[in-house]
Amino acid sequence: MQLGARWRAGEEPHRGVPPVLYSAIAEQEAAHPAASAWTLTFLEGRPRCALDDAVTVTLDAAGSVVVEGGLGLTADRFSQGTATVEGVPDDGDDDWLS
Hints:
Layout: E1 5-8, H1 22-31, E2 37-43, E3 46-51, E4 55-59, E5 65-69, H2 75-79
Antiparallel strand pairs: 1-2, 2-3, 3-4, 4-5
């Protein structure tokens, strides 16, 4: 079992955070200067770092860093064409709705 933790924004990440996430964490702190704290949790064995309600930094199943906004996907995901305007992945399986 892995326990979560909290640390203040601007401080060194908690020792449970993999170093591969450090640069993304620093970038998000710079982008959200009013944020106060990070929360580290684990989902399916992967670290999930949430900066208040603003953004989440995590690893996908392949080990790549993923940054998601609090209410939807970030512009990085939009530019890759993997999300719709509403922030919901487009799996092409909603033709029955039209």
